[in-house]
Design brief:
By secondary structure, this protein is an alpha+beta fold. It contains 14 helices and nine strands. The chain folds into two domains: 92 residues, Phosphorylase Kinase, domain 1 (2-Layer Sandwich); 222 residues, Transferase(Phosphotransferase), domain 1. A hairpin with a 2-residue loop joins β4 and β5.
Length: 368
């Protein structure tokens, strides 16, 4: 009897051990498969916290990245128009020469997916497959702001002063969200007219926020880097000031031609302000529709934003308040880069030396 019991117990124990062994092997196998899939396809889909589209879907949506669907190309790579499930989309295809790795890309996607504001372009999903890394955004049918404000014919027909002011205020609110109201503090670094997109109702939406770029370019970026030595929220404020002057005047900061002087747009605006003639800055196509108090307020705020020392520039929360009320504003000091073009362009060798330090990549976020 005792022998029979002992044999039964031994059989049961052997069965338990055998089942445990096979379970352990199965779990190890699943982990190995998971690691292999992760190495081949990137991180698991659920980590990205937004839809992950298959490459074949994106290829079909863009007609195999047809040149006819190409909207443009920036520091991130080419951008294509497409249609996905009946919705128009914009696909940013990461350039393979950008140097951005899979983990860096994934971190950027997770970051951007957390940012939701009516004045930011909405991220709809992404595609990570093989060497392809793409971001899929909502499509902005009216393109970028620069195509309107620097084109008097097009801009004059579609954008009167109330819409200009609406765009300025919308950009300010979007930038305030990035700097202060989101869980992460985001520094754009490259705010300019071509990075502000317009929807069907001409509402402004800031694009290219949160993307790590290996090449940092553009007039505003070069100016703020030269002034501050590194990027900060006050660098974005400076860029916003330049952008407002461009929206009001319909002229680019760089390349401004004036028969009486050779200042940049900032210098030209300061000169008119200091001489009591700020309204001469207004684009002629806006003169019939503008509200003088709003225009003067915008010029005043922009000159405060382009002050030489970052501590003299307002925060974006202050900018939003100033644009939305009639409070008394501090008088601006002589702004940065109030200089003759000859001084700016003198010494091409020194300019070549300084240009290399703009080719950097910086992580620009703080957890609140």
């Amino acid at each position: 009897m005792a022998v029979a019991i002992a044999v039964s117990v031994a059989i049961v124990l052997s069965g338990v051990l055998l089942v445990g062994y096979f379970l352990h092997r199965s779990r190890r196998k699943l982990k190995e498969i998971g690691k292999t899939n992760q190495n081949n396809e990137g991180e698991p889909k659920e980590d990205l916290e937004l839809p992950l589209f298959d490459l074949t879907i994106v290829i079909g949506a863009t007609n195999n990245f047809s040149s006819n669907n190409k909207l443009g190309e920036g520091g991130f790579g080419p951008v294509y128009r497409g249609t996905l499930h009946g919705q128009e989309i914009a696909v940013k295809r990461l350039s393979r020469s950008s140097g951005q790795g899979l983990n860096e890309f994934k971190n950027e996607v997770i970051l951007i997916a957390k940012l939701q504001h009516r004045n930011l372009v909405k991220l709809l999903g992404c595609c990570v497959q093989g060497e392809e890394k793409m971001l899929i955004y909502e499509y902005m049918p009216n393109g970028s702001l620069d195509s309107f404000i620097f084109d008097q014919v097009r801009g004059g027909l579609l954008l009167d002063w109330p819409k200009h002011f609406h765009i300025i205020c919308g950009i300010a609110r979007g930038l305030l969200y990035l700097h202060q109201d989101s869980r992460l503090r985001i520094i754009h670094r490259d705010l300019k007219a071509s990075n502000v997109l317009l929807d069907n109702e001409m509402n402004p939406k800031i694009s290219d926020f949160g993307l790590a770029r290996t090449l940092i370019g553009g007039d505003q970026t070069a100016v703020t880097w030269h002034l501050d030595g590194l990027f900060s929220v006050k660098s974005d404020v400076f860029s916003f000031g330049i952008l407002v002057l461009e929206v009001i005047s319909g002229r680019k900061n760089k390349g401004l031609y004036h028969p009486n002087h050779s200042h940049s747009l900032i210098g030209h605006a300061w000169r008119l302000w200091n001489q009591g003639r700020p309204l001469e800055l207004i684009d002629t196509c806006l003169e019939s529709s503008c509200t003088l108090l709003e225009v003067l307020c915008c010029i005043h705020v922009s000159l405060l934003c382009v002050q030489h020392h970052p501590e003299d520039r307002p925060s974006m929360s202050s900018v939003v308040i100033m644009l939305g009320s009639e409070i008394a504003l501090a008088q601006p000091k002589q702004p940065s880069f109030f200089m003759e073009k000859e001084s700016h362009e003198a010494g091409s060798s020194s300019g070549n030396q300084s240009s290399s330090r703009n080719e950097i990549s910086i992580t620009l976020l703080e957890v609140r």
